[in-house]
Write a structure and sequence with these properties.
The chain has 587 residues and is an alpha+beta fold. It is built from 26 helices and 16 strands. It has 5 domains: 7-93, DNA Primase, Chain A, CATH 3.90.580; 101-231, DNA primase DNAg catalytic core, N-terminal domain (Alpha-Beta Complex); 247-364, 3-Layer(aba) Sandwich (Dna Topoisomerase Vi A Subunit, Chain: A, domain 2); 376-434, Pheromone ER-1, CATH 1.20.50; 452-586, DNAb Helicase, Chain A (Orthogonal Bundle). Helix 11 (266-274) packs across helix 14 (345-362) and helix 20 runs parallel beside helix 21.
């Protein structure tokens, strides 16, 4: 959607959404007092520590600290974007997400394309069963070890030979043809009419995170035919940089993915599934992208990359390093399977079987080893100049890592390999005076006191998704606490645009708030909180600000009551505040 969704609509949507129903339709919940509990869907555990509160309309895991509202649950559990999660909940509640006229036109266009491409997928699946040329496809798949069950699980299809099989099938539906044109499945002829993009190919439907078909990958069966693979073009609903083949099927089979195997091709995914290795996704036969890495890490905390064993595969693995390193936050893990030359995951699993491939996964090389092995592959580390070259090669890559323990450990490892002290290495890499999170943690805030308001602000800037946990802030507007005004201002800015660039935030602040806005001090405050536990820490800090606001409001009303009669509204307010104070004591 081009426009912003009004915060008032989101608040209304959450008010009409029962988080217990939303989560309960996806995982098994059991009642425990006023709450509901389950084994956490976001990490492996045997004893339930995942709690859903019907009263607070909030969930929290005491094991991994994952928490949030119904919208946040869908973004994490289903892998949806913020807007997609809102659309799902709105549809469930019978609400229409506010849109402008352009959005309405775009939505109608997208809906038509989604419907047409779904009908095309059904057509292709039918051709795989019924077309006169289908037996040769069956033989090809059997020779590759693909059963009918797996073909059905991945909705495999067949684009028949000839130029107009799909076009002819929908020839009496001009609106569908127009939508198929938008989906990139048919192409306009210069003299009028259309012809099919995919011809005489096995088709692999590409599903988005919601299970909708958004494109296809087509593979030839004749090794002499080129190109070997043909993908759908970029369309209004398909961007190959943002999608992964097989991810939807992997999540459908296991919602609690602890790890994901990442391969290059469609047949890799299908063949591995045939051998019972289903937690797998492919990069659509193209280079790995930053968007795909971000999407993968939203599904699992460990990624195991398995590129082809040829020269192109090794180069692809090497090119992936600068894309992967910036995403290595605390709690994440990456490993690499190094296949023999001329092997790919498809051929290798058929050669060694399930047991052999699982052993390869078990022996996968950790990111740190793979990084240094790759950089030193053509270097003789017995020589000083080669070790110096390794430092030069590693320098830009290590700087890409999020500052922290892992980055520091790799600097230590590099110093050991190079045979120099860490102090010398830091001077060589220009890292000595660079402020990293590990440096910041030992610094004391220079100007900002670590009040609950500044703490909440710092954590909110560190993890933007926490904006979903905030709720109403009217009572915080006038609280007398250092940093409270800045906190409210930051909340309002991020509520309007959670993706705003950090350097642009200061421009939107008032003069008073801007004077309190020090990134160095806020980073120092946030650095004392582990990322894994940031949500409960944030909620605790925000709650302390709320309690202070209520205490001040109560004090003002009590002081007024001593010299003047309170109005009916003030009496109700004071009663509520006193009741809330008692409730907080019990909690």
């Amino acid at each position: 959607m081009s426009g912003q969704i009004p915060p008032s609509f989101i608040a209304d949507l959450l008010a009409k959404t029962d988080i217990v129903d939303v989560i309960g339709t996806r995982i098994s919940l059991r009642r425990a007092g006023t709450n509901f509990v389950a084994c956490c869907p976001f990490h492996q555990e045997k004893t339930p520590s995942f709690t859903v509160s019907a009263v607070k309309q909030f969930y929290h895991c005491f094991g991994c600290a994952e928490s949030g509202d119904a919208i946040h649950f869908l973004t994490e559990y289903e892998g949806l974007s913020f807007v997609e999660a809102i659309e799902v909940l709105a549809s469930r509640a019978g609400l229409t997400v506010p849109t402008d006229e352009k959005d309405k036109v775009d939505k109608a266009k997208y809906t038509a394309i989604y419907q047409a491409i779904t009908e095309a997928s059904a057509f292709y699946q039918g051709q795989l069963r019924r077309h006169p040329a289908a037996p040769k496809v069956h033989d090809y798949l059997k020779n590759r070890g693909v059963t009918g069950e797996i073909a059905k699980a991945f909705s495999l299809g067949f684009a028949p030979p000839g130029w107009d099989a799909l076009t002819h099938h929908f020839s009496d539906k001009p609106a569908v043809l127009e939508a198929l044109l938008g989906a990139g499945l048919i192409i306009k002829k210069e003299g009028g009419g259309y012809y099919d993009r995919f011809r005489d190919r096995i088709l692999f439907p590409i599903h988005d995170r919601r299970g909708r078909v958004v494109g296809f990958g087509g593979r030839v069966m004749d090794p002499k035919q080129e190109p070997k693979y043909l993908n759908s073009p970029e369309t209004a609903i398909f961007n190959k940089r943002n999608e992964l083949y097989g991810l939807f099927e992997a999540r459908k089979g296991n919602r609690s993915l602890s790890s994901l195997l990442v391969v290059e091709g469609y047949m890799d995914v299908v063949s591995l599934a045939q051998f019972g290795i289903q937690d797998c996704a492919a990069t659509l036969g193209t280079a790995l992208t930053e968007q795909q890495i971000d999407l993968l890490f939203r599904q699992a905390s460990e990624l195991i990359f398995c590129f082809d064993g040829d020269k192109a595969g090794r180069e692809a693995a090497k090119r992936s390093l600068p894309l992967i390193l910036p995403h290595m936050k605390e709690g994440r893990r990456v490993r690499f399977i190094v296949l023999p030359a001329k092997e790919d995951p498809d051929s290798y699993v058929r050669q060694v079987g399930r047991k052999g491939f699982l052993e390869a996964i078990e022996k996968a090389v950790p990111l740190s080893d793979f990084l240094f092995n790759t950089l030193s592959a053509n270097l003789d580390l017995h020589h000083l100049d080669s070790r110096a070259q390794l430092v030069t090669l590693a320098k830009p890559l290590l700087k890409l890592l999020p500052p922290g323990v892992f980055q520091q450990m790799l600097y230590t490892r590099l110093a050991e390999i190079a045979g120099i002290s860490e102090e010398t290495l830091e001077g060589k890499t220009g890292n000595k005076n660079k402020k990293t999170w590990s440096n910041v943690k030992v610094l004391k805030p220079q100007r900002l006191p670590p009040t609950p308001a500044y703490q909440a602000t710092a954590m909110l800037l560190e993890e933007r998704r926490l904006i979903l946990c905030v709720g109403e802030i009217d009572e915080l507007q006038n609280v007398d606490m250092p940093g409270a005004s800045l906190l409210c201002a930051i909340i309002e800015i991020l509520s309007s645009d959670a993706n705003i660039k950090s350097e642009a935030i200061g421009d939107k602040l008032s003069a008073d708030d801007s004077s309190q806005f020090s990134y160095e001090d806020l980073k120092a405050i946030a650095a004392s909180v582990p990322i894994a536990g940031i949500e409960p820490e944030f909620l605790g800090a925000l709650q302390r600000v709320r309690e202070r606001a209520r205490e001040q409001a109560m004090e003002l009303l009590l002081q007024k009551a001593k010299v003047d009669a309170l109005s009916s509204a003030e009496k109700v307010q004071l009663k509520d505040l006193l009741g809330q104070k008692d409730k907080n004591r019990v909690d």
